[in-house]
């Protein structure tokens, strides 16, 4: 049976990105300024028998909530998620969703919360595979010594998101 993945290219703050959802929920937020192929390759790899359909009506509620989060008006994403990953990746993403807005933790902290203290590298890999930037807040994870570490969308965006959260959502306008 075919599953439809609805998608839309969106503009959020200074970032242009693709977002996608299934009937179950938001499943993908792409790297800013990445080509459509990033999304289509992700869908081909992760969603069996997918049909892709551009659909503003389906994606718009997620866009509005994400925009509110970026603008500091909604600190917790309440929309449904449909995350595709291994059981370990899913467990890491669950931990990420417990990090409060404006807070940070380390990769080591994530591994310890999973009761797998030696799995720090695997945690980093799972965080790097996070398909839903910002909503599953991988930007809130730092190295043990407080440095930014990696981020699929680049360290500049990670720094901007952390600063935005520290300032309570004001963009210095």
Automatic annotation (TrEMBL):
SUPFAM superfamilies in alphabetical order: Methylated DNA-protein cysteine methyltransferase domain, Methylated DNA-protein cysteine methyltransferase, C-terminal domain
Name by which UniProt lists this protein: methylated-DNA--[protein]-cysteine S-methyltransferase
GO biological process terms held by the UniProt record: DNA repair; methylation
Domain of life, per lineage: Bacteria
UniProt keyword list: DNA damage, DNA repair, Methyltransferase, Transferase
Membership in a protein family: Belongs to the MGMT family.
InterPro entries associated with the record: MethylDNA_cys_MeTrfase_AS (IPR001497), MethylDNA_cys_MeTrfase_DNA-bd (IPR014048), MethylDNA_cys_MeTrfase_DNAb (IPR036217), MGMT_N_sf (IPR036631), WH-like_DNA-bd_sf (IPR036388)
E.C. code: 2.1.1.63
Broad class of enzyme this protein falls into: transferase
Natural source organism: Sporosarcina pasteurii
Lineage: Bacteria, Bacillati, Bacillota, Bacilli, Bacillales
CDD domains on file: ATase
Catalytic activity: a 6-O-methyl-2'-deoxyguanosine in DNA + L-cysteinyl-[protein] = S-methyl-L-cysteinyl-[protein] + a 2'-deoxyguanosine in DNA; a 4-O-methyl-thymidine in DNA + L-cysteinyl-[protein] = a thymidine in DNA + S-methyl-L-cysteinyl-[protein]
Keyword Transmembrane helix among UniProt keywords: no
Gene Ontology MF term list: methylated-DNA-[protein]-cysteine S-methyltransferase activity
Gene name tied to this protein: adaB
């Amino acid at each position: 049976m075919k599953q439809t993945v609805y998608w839309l290219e969106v503009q959020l703050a200074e970032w242009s990105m693709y977002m996608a959802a299934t009937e179950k929920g938001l499943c993908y937020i792409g790297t800013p300024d990445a080509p459509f192929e990033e999304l289509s390759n992700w869908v081909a790899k992760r969603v069996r028998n997918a049909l892709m359909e551009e659909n503003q009506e389906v994606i718009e509620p997620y866009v509005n909530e994400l925009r509110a989060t970026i603008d500091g008006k909604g600190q917790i994403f309440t929309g449904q998620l449909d995350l595709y990953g291994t059981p370990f990746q899913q467990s890491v993403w669950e931990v990420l969703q417990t990090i409060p807005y404006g807070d940070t933790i380390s990769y080591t902290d994530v591994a310890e919360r999973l009761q797998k203290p030696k799995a720090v590298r695997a945690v980093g890999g799972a965080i790097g595979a996070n398909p839903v930037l910002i909503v599953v807040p991988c930007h809130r994870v730092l190295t043990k010594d407080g440095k930014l570490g990696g981020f699929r969308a680049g360290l500049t965006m990670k720094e901007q998101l952390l600063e935005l959260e520290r300032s309570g959502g004001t963009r210095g306008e």
